[in-house]
Amino acid sequence: MSQSLLPPRFAGLEHLVDEWALPSEKARAHKRVATDIEVSRRFHGEVLPHVEPIIQYLNTFPNDPGALPPDALRLYRLAQMFMEVSAPIDLEWDSSDIEDVFPMERMNFHPPSVPG
């Protein structure tokens, strides 16, 4: 039997995991600007009804992505990508990017801070 990609109650979103549950801020930012706005709108629309249950589910774990089980980590990454595409959708942009923005290839992405 194959292992589920997401927690059972979110199994209906599993088809989105390979394309959208990306492991880094850089990958998510590049995906957002490279994806047609209509594709982003479809992704956003499909995930939106599940956002509150996703938050409630993830709140049952410690606030440390590194401590999440694999299926919950994929769900967390899917939620991060949802947030990434939300700005252009919520602001009703015609594109996933802005023409006069600082060039993506010149941006530096740093790993998350770890409380010490």
Write the layout of secondary structure elements.
Layout: H1 17-20, H2 25-34, H3 37-47, H4 51-58, H5 70-90
Helix pairs in contact: 3-5, 4-5
How does this structure look, described?
The protein is mainly alpha-helical and 116 residues long. The chain contains five helices and no strands. Helix 3 (37-47) crosses helix 5 and helix 4 crosses helix 5. The radius of gyration is 15 Å and the shape is globular. The mean pLDDT is 87.
Whole-number mean pLDDT? 87
Distance between the termini: 41 Å
Strand content of the residues, in percent? Answer: under 5%
Shape: globular
Counted by DSSP, the helix tally is: 5
Largest sheet: none
Radius of gyration, CA atoms, in whole angstroms: 15 Å
Helix content estimate: 40-55%
Please give the oligomerization state of what you see.
Answer: single chain
The SSE string, one letter per element, is HHHHH
List keywords for this structure.
mainly alpha; 47% helix
In short:
With 116 residues, this protein is mainly alpha-helical. The protein contains 5 helices and no strands. It has helices at 17-20, 25-34, 37-47, 51-58, 70-90.
